[in-house]
Amino acid sequence: MVFEAFSWLRLFLFFTSIACFFIVSLSVFVLRLKPWCSCEICQSFLSSRWSLEFSNLCDWYSHLLLKSETGTIRVHVLGNIITANPENVEYMLKTRFDNYPKGKTFSAILGDLLGKGIFNVDGHLWKFQRKMACLELGNLSAKSYAFEIAVSEIRSRLIPLLSSVAGKENGVLDLQDVFQRFSFDSICKFSFGQDPGCLKLSLPVSEFAVAFDLASKLSADRALTVSPLIWKIKRFFNLGSEKKLKEAIKSVNILAEELIKQKRNMDVSSHEDLLSRFMATIDDDKFLRDIVISFLLAGRDTIASSLTTFFWLLSNHPDVTLAIREESDHIMGSKTQDLASFEQLREMHYLQAAVHESMRLFPPVQFDSKFCQEDDILPDGTFVAKGTRVTYHPYAMGRMETIWGPDCLEFKPERWLQDGIFKQVNPFKYPVFQAGVRVCLGKEMALVEMKTVALSLIRQFDIQMANPNQTLKFMPGLTATVKNGLPVFVEERNR
User: Binding of heme: at which residues (predicted)?
Assistant: First the structure.
C-alpha cells in the first residue's frame, strides 16, 4: 500500500513538473512574441482579417512588402522579420551566411522526418553532405541517368496516361496528381533505384507515397502551431496529429530500411542511383536513410508544384504555348511523338525563359526562413535580434515592381531574353533555387526534367482547364500545392 501511494506521488510530481514547465515556457514564449501587439499587421494576422481580401497568406505578405519602403516587414506576434529586399537576401545567404543558419527551431520541426539529412542541418554535417552531393550530382553520369529516367517515365507512362483520357466526354484528369505521381516515380528511381509505379494507367495507391505525403504534411503543420510547445507536448504524449506523424514516419522508415538492406546484399558498384553512390562511402544506414529521404522530399514536390502552376499559366496564355511549339518545331521538326534530346533542350531559349518566368510568379517553395545567431543589422537598416526568425520571400519578390518593373504581375517569358538568347538574372533577385552558399545542387537536373515533361505534353496534347475560371489557392505545406488540384481536359493535337 505504501508502494502504491509512492507510485501515485511520483506520477503526480511528474505531471506537476510537466505542467509547470509548460506554463513557464509558454510565459516566456508569450513575452517574447508580444501577442498583445496592436500594430495593423499583427492584428490582421491574429484575427485573420487579411483573408477577407486575399485568398492566400503569401499574397497578403506580398501586398505588405510592396507597400514597405524597405521591402521588409515585422510580424511581432510570430517573432518574424519577412523581407523581399534582394540586398537583404544576399546578406543572409552569402555575406553573413554563418550568422543565418537554419537553426534548431527549423531542425526540430522536420527532425523526425529528415533526421540529419542535408536540408535539416548546419555546420559540419551540412558541409560533409554538401561536398558529397556536389561530387555525385555534379558529374555527367548522374545527369544523364536522371534524364534517361525522365524520358522513360514520359514515354512509357505519362503520355499513355494522357492519351487514355484524351477526347473522352468525362475524361477529367487532375494534372497536379499526375505530376506528383510522375515526380515520385522519377525521384524514387533516381534516389533508390526502385520503381513505385504510381503513374501506371490504373493509378495505383503506393503505400510509400501515402506515408511519405502524410509525414511531409504533418511535419509542415508543426510550423503553423502558435507555439512549438503544443506539438512537442502532443508528441510527448503521442496524441492526435503527432501520433499520426509517428506512424507515418515509421512506415517510411520501414520501407527505406528495407531498400537499404536489399542494397547491402547487392553489388552496388555498377548501380547509378543516389543510394548506391552514397553507399560506396557511407556505412551508417540511419545516416543513409536521412540523406536519401531529404533528396526525395526536395525532388518530388518541387517538380510537381512547378509543373502544375506552369500549365495553369499556359492555359491563360495560349500565345506562350504557340511560341514554345514553334521553337521546338524549328529545332526538332514537327513530329509530335518525338522527345527532345538533352542537346536540343539547350537550344530552346524561349522554353527556358517560360519555365523561369513561371517560377518567378509561382516558386515551388514560396518562402524560406533562417534564424539569426547574433544581433545584426540588415543592409536596409532593419535590426535583427539574436534568435529572431528572418524569412526571405521568393513569392513576394516575383511581385515587386522595384525588382521586376511595373509589369511584374504579367507572365512574360520575353523578360528573360536578350536578342532571343536566355539571360540569367542576379540570383538574389530570383532565389527560387536559393542562392549563395546553399544554392540548390539539383537545379540543372530539375530544370531539364521540367522542360522535358512540359515540352512532351505541349507538343502532343491540347490541355484545357476543366474550370477556366479557376484561381490558385495554396494549401499550407513545405511546397506550394494547389488546393483541389488542377482538373483538366486533354485532347490529342491535330497536325
Answer: 440
